[in-house]
Every structure is written in C-alpha cells, then in structure tokens.
Amino acid sequence: MRRRRFLAQSLAACTAPVLPAHAEATGVPPGFIVPAEDSPHDATVMMWPASRRVYPDRAFRTLLRRCITKIANSIAAFEPVILCADAALHSTIRPRLTAGVTLWDIPTEDLWARCAGPLIARNQAGDRVLSHIQFNGWGRKQHHQNDKEVARAVARRLGFAIHDSGLVGEPGGADQDGHGTVIAHESSWVIDNRNPDLSRDQIASRLRSAFGAERLIWSKGVQGYDITDYHIDSLARFTGPNHVVINLPTSPDPYDPFHSAAQQTHERLVSAGLSVDVIPEPSHHRKRRTRDFVASYVNYYVCNGAVIAPRFGDATTDRIAHQTLQRHYPKREIVTLNADPLGEVGGGIHCATQQIPS
C-alpha cells in the first residue's frame, strides 16, 4: 500500500519547471543528467505487446504476454510499475497483475519500453524532464504508429517538460553510468535509417547532451544483422562509475559478426580505462524457437532493492551470472526469471523496462 500511495503522491507532485508540459524545446538544459539506473526510482514504465500484426502467432503472443506480466509483477514487489496499454485491453490485462502495477491508457504495439519509452533526465534540484529521442521502429523496420508516441504521452501525463534531443533512435542503444560517461555502438546511431543528415560528430554531441554526459565511448558494433543494429545493452552495462559487466562467448566464432563486434567492444572499453568484468554466455539452455535467440545475462534491470535478471538453464553460467551481479550489486536482491520469450524476439528484461528516476 505504501508504494501505491507514494506513486500517486509523486505523480500528483510532478511539475514542469523548465517549460509547460505541452511545449517542447531542443536539447536538455544545462545541469540535467540521466541518472544511473541504480539510483532511486519513482516507478518503472513497461509496454504491452498488443499488436497481432507484430506477433501474428497466437500461441507465442500468449507466451510473450505472460512473460511481460511476470516481469511487471516481479518488479512491483520492489517499486511501482506503470504498464502502458490501450484502455480497451485493461479489463483483460488487469486480472493478471498484482496491486503494484498500474495500467495507463497509452496505446502500444510492442513491448520495448527501453526503446520507445521515456528517457528522463534530472537536475540537482530534483526537476525532471523528458530527454526525447524519437523512436522510429528501429529505422522503419517495424510498424510503430502508437509506440512512437509513448515517450511523449508518459511525459505529458507526468507533467514533465519535453526536450527534443535532435536524435532518432532508441535509448537502449546507449548505456550510461550517471556520472558523465556513455557507451554506445556506432551501428545503432550512425546509420541512414535513423540520422541520415547528421555526421558522426554531430550524433556524438547530441547523444552526450541527451544523457547529460561529458564522455562518449564509441565501439563500431555491427549493422544489418538484427532489428536494433546491435544495441549495447545486450552486450555491456555500467554497474557504477568506470565499472562495466560484459557478456562474451567462451569460444568466439570468428565468422560470427556479433562475436567479432563483441570482442572489439571489450577491447575498446578496456583501452578506454574502464574496469570490465566478463560473464560468459550460456553453453546449454532450454529449447529455442529461433537460431537468433538473444542469451544476454547483462540485459537485466536494476530497480529499488533488486536486480531483475534472466536465467537460461545453463547451471554453470546461470550461477556465474548470479554471483557476478550479486558482487556488483551487494545491497540488492538478485531475482532471476525465465524470460526466454523475450530472447526469442531479440531482447531481454532491460529492453522491456524504462525507469522514472525519483
């Protein structure tokens, strides 16, 4: 009950100190930064996979929705969850959810809140704004009539001013430590289907500004092999200032473009002076529907008091991942879930969540 009351109070108290909520400005104001994910949250934003056009297989669509429900309920044990879905679906969804999950009438097609949800920046006074990166279906690869509006819709409901970053892309294509450093793959940003009229340097400048960062560490990544053009958050994540965990294959395949790109990113992060802790990819896991299954241990989500992380059925690597996360987040409970349906469609738990910093 206390969590639900706190959410209602915090939403009522939200103000837009920089601009009226209906207005938009270019660039995040000086002094605003996207906090580290392990800083306190007011809530987690998630999205309902509603579209039969995106997920035509009824049986798999059911599995995917069960997975989203399980993640939302798991997070809700630690902090409030806002689940965006068309109001017409609420009566069907509500019975599956615990009391800590609130449904908002914001229509969606897909579930990827890290891509289409709101990236929130905050200043030292506690003012919050939407640092808006415009979602376009990963370079117009997927129908996104509703999803492209989710970030603005959430910000307006919260009463946050909207500041346009001048970028097209997805916040999941970058990861930040909340202390001035961002890491990203060029493949997700310096690409004609997102930002065709911007140079690499212009994109870098706008990306730093969007996160309120001073330093951007690029790695090349790989384009054209998956819908995201290799989001960094399925490979490497900050666990603190200058500390990163990375998910690497034990025996890299020299002919696999993702393996090669992952090794390049590891070398780049180490050469940039970051402390990098390796978690091996699983060698054995449950039966998969697709060859392109994403088995990323670092695609976890940090919420208030917990880390919600995947497990893949390899007893050895599941244990290593759990121990590594516990070492990096010693004051948090490590909650592991079977989130395989997300891996089947190229993502993970982190991809399905977006935090509202306190």
Helices, strands, pairings?
Blueprint: H1 2-13, E1 24-26, E2 41-47, H2 58-76, E3 81-85, H3 90-93, E4 101-105, H4 113-116, E5 120-122, E6 128-134, H5 137-140, H6 150-158, E7 161-168, E8 174-176, E9 181-185, H7 200-211, E10 215-219, E11 236-240, E12 243-248, H8 257-271, E13 275-280, E14 301-303, E15 306-310, H9 315-328, E16 333-337, H10 340-344, E17 354-357
Parallel strand pairs: 1-7, 2-3, 3-4, 6-7, 9-10, 12-13, 15-16
Antiparallel strand pairs: 2-17, 5-6, 8-9, 11-12, 14-15
Describe what you observe in this structure.
This protein is an alpha/beta fold and 358 residues long. A four-stranded mixed sheet has the order 1-7-6-5, sandwiched between helices. A four-stranded mixed sheet has the order 4-3-2-17. A three-stranded mixed sheet has the order 8-9-10, sandwiched between helices. Residues 1-23 have low confidence and may be disordered. The protein is globular and about 50 Å long. Helix 9 (315-328) links the parallel strand 15 (306-310) and strand 16. It has ten helices and 17 strands. It has a single domain, classed as L-arginine/glycine Amidinotransferase, Chain A, CATH 3.75.10.10.
